[in-house]
Specification:
CATH superfamily: Creatinase/methionine aminopeptidase superfamily
Radius of gyration: 17 Å
Structural class: alpha+beta
CATH topology: Creatine Amidinohydrolase
Shape: globular
Strand content: 15-25%
Number of domains: 1
Strand order of the largest sheet: 8-7-9-14-15
Distance between the termini: 23 Å
Length: 280
């Protein structure tokens, strides 16, 4: 959800959340305490639970509005607040992006989910002052082999990136592993949107990029960092555009897009996947 991160970076004159967590003053890259990490585990497991349940319940004929209502109810039942709803004006608790929609799709009671769809569901939960954030790609019904391959590679790219997370490695180690795997499979990495730090704010420093670049700070990883790693890959070109609703991002060539995301903790010898769904 890095349009939000871009907004945060642009200045302090942005509207705060009305119903839920306010956007706190930026603190730079934070190292979380043991207490903070335990809270983030709980927030992240709420997200993991919701996504696991949505993955099991999705079927053709439902609407993306149905999924949004379910996600909000479950997040609140577990004692948290939806991280996305109201965030810089976003109107829902999930992003639901279908097929060539890349990110930030707005759920609607009029948007039917059909067999063959590649559905990206991204959500976050704010619990006791901290956020968890994750995204899955769901193959709905009878999906084409090419769509399944795109989702599989996006998921493998996420895990390749996570395999590079350990103290003294850098963000470029993560980015390189993701980019190499994606390109080796003939797909493209979306460069307009990146992962991010996560904690008191849904989006914190640093930007966790999925491609090699010298234009973003190449931070060295340290234990206690909490990051949202989220490769977004396209079947065609990497170029995207935003629709008139101001949120929904689509591929310019109308080819498919896939995304997988986890919130992770950098540990002394690797990383802990805080949003692990236990279903893989």
């Amino acid at each position: 959800m890095n349009l939000f991160a871009d907004l945060m970076a642009s200045g302090s004159g942005l509207p705060q959340k009305v119903d839920g967590p306010s956007i706190q003053k930026r603190r730079g890259v934070e190292i979380k305490s043991a207490r903070e990490i335990e809270i983030m585990r709980k927030a992240s497991q709420i997200v993991a639970t919701v996504l696991r349940e949505i993955n099991l319940m999705v079927e053709p004929g439902m609407t993306t509005g149905d999924l949004d209502a379910y996600a909000e109810r479950r997040i609140r039942e577990m004692g948290a607040v939806p991280s996305f709803k109201g965030y810089h004006g976003f109107p829902a608790s999930i992003c639901a992006s279908i097929n060539y929609e890349v990110v930030h799709g707005i759920p609607s009671s009029k948007r039917l989910i059909k067999t063959g769809d590649l559905l990206k569901v991204d959500t976050g939960a704010y619990f006791d002052g901290y956020h968890g954030d994750s995204c899955i790609t769901i193959a709905v019904g009878d999906v084409s082999e090419s769509a399944m391959e795109l989702s599989r590679v996006a998921k493998e790219a996420l895990m390749a990136g996570l395999s590079q997370i350990k103290p003294r490695n850098t963000l470029l180690d993560i980015a390189g592993a993701i980019e190499d795997l994606v390109k080796a499979n003939g797909f493209s990495v979306v460069e307009d949107y990146t992962g991010h730090g996560v904690g008191r704010n849904l989006h914190e420093e640093p930007s966790v990029f999925n491609f090699r670049t010298n234009e973003l700070p190449n931070l060295t990883l340290r234990p206690g960092m909490t990051l949202a790693v989220e490769p977004i890959i396209n079947a065609g070109s990497k170029f995207c555009r935003t629709l008139r609703d101001g949120w929904t991002v689509v591929t310019k060539d109308r080819n498919l897009s896939a995304q997988w995301e986890h919130t992770i903790l950098v540990t002394s010898d690797g990383c802990e996947i805080l949003t692990d769904r236990g279903d893989e």
